[in-house]
Amino acid sequence: MEIKITTANLEDDTIKTLYNASLNGCVTTLNTLIQNKPLLLHKVSLSPYNETPLHIASLLGHLEFCEILLKNKPSFTNEVDSKGRCPLHLASAEGCTEVVKALLLANEDVCLVFDKDDMIPLHLAAKRGRIGALKELLQSVRGDQKFLFAKNKEGNTILHLAIRLKQIKTIEYLLLQPEIRTAAIATNRSGFTTLEMLEPWPRDFISLKIEEMLTESGVLRQVYMNSTPQQHAASPSMASQEQPNQSTNQEHPNERRKTWENFWSKYLQFQGNWIEETRGTLMLVATVIATMTFQSAISPPGGVWQENTLTGGLNCTTYGLCEAGTAVLAYAWPHEFIKFMTYNTISFFWSLGVVLLLISGFPLKNKVMMWVLTFAMTVAVTFMALTYVFAQGLVTPYHIIQQVYNMRYPRVVVTWGVLLLVVGLIHTLRFVFWVKKRTKLKLHTLRRVFARTNYPAV
């Protein structure tokens, strides 16, 4: 029997070839198909497949293949599969960051495409801990409240999902975003806040870490302040934050205490890992200070002797010989010059210490490391200022030296000292409150653990 090859059969074979190419990411095959059949991509909607080739290529991370499809048929970004998911959903779930970026460049509006579970691409990225995809999605629609407060079928926000699945890195990144911290007070359809998502599950060290992160970022306090007295009683996590002597029927809290809490939350409370965010800038500042202090050591104020001499502006015979390459002012003002070099050296080595810590690979998200770096930079900057003060004194003519001292000490030095005192006080308060919160959180967790195991409470 003779088999007749119809046009329909040829088109089906071409479509199959296209889908096989999308599975393998074969750009050569795709270009050949488009060149031979310019309308091929427009006929994909007539095929029996649920997904478009862009769905498959996005899922598998074939960037170049996706870029060619987007160039020839950008409307593929809006197509959804049988579960209502567009290509951006799949790329976000798999963490294909470069593909996510390409899809957003082609059509930014697909960020708000909801699938059949009412999930947008950001939900899937948060569930799977895809930090790169999260960053691209958040940067694309920065500040869009509809996007940030989007909830799935169960009423969970992106932070709810990340906490439920205990995605530590995702939670840590999300809490650095002010908008996300604002959205953290939302409840899902079960009435659970972000913190209460941990309640139904067994307690472990990851849960403790998440509670600590929520507390330090201010989310726990937001949930407490925005909840009703009934919610306080229903939620052990929030109830534990109440003062023991606070009455449940108290309607008006102390205004002075409220003002202090607002001030602390806005200006003094730890607001994320600022050192991690400014790592490059911190490295640059430390390098500049090290460079300046190094230059001051080899080219001190007043210069150096160009050759060995027993005469000149100073009586070099007092020291036996003024050697070439040594500082001129070291002979005239030896005590002041020693102080200048001491402060300069301290600033130099502390700034180098900061550079060493930054390039050593230590985790800067550790709060102790952040305090060490803060202290080191404070020391480096302070002694850099003292180096300047003594350098200024060394090069100032004697007949106006008193005027320079009068200008320097009452104003500049005192102001700098007060500023250092304020900064030190703030960091001390932060440390004290951090220790207090950690202790309180651990005691609260131990009470809950003992309560569930029927042991006597701590």
TrEMBL record:
Q: How does it sit in the membrane?
A: Peripheral membrane protein; Multi-pass membrane protein
Task: Keywords in alphabetical order, please.
Answer: ANK repeat, Membrane, Repeat, Transmembrane, Transmembrane helix
> What stretches of residues are ANK repeats?
49-72, 83-110
PROSITE patterns hit by this protein: ANK_REP_REGION, ANK_REPEAT
- The residue ranges crossing the membrane are 340-359, 371-391, 411-433
The record's SMART domains line, in alphabetical order, gives: ANK
Record keywords: Repeat included?
yes
- One GO cellular component term, please give it: plasma membrane
Give one Pfam family.
Answer: Ank_2
Q: Segment Disordered: which positions?
A: 230-256
The Polar residues compositionally biased stretches are: 230-251
Main localization of the protein? membrane
Ranges of residues in domain PGG: 273-391
Q: Does the keyword Calcium apply?
A: no
Q: Where in the cell is it found?
A: Cell membrane; Membrane
Q: What name is this protein filed under?
A: Ankyrin repeat protein
Q: Which organism is it from?
A: Medicago truncatula
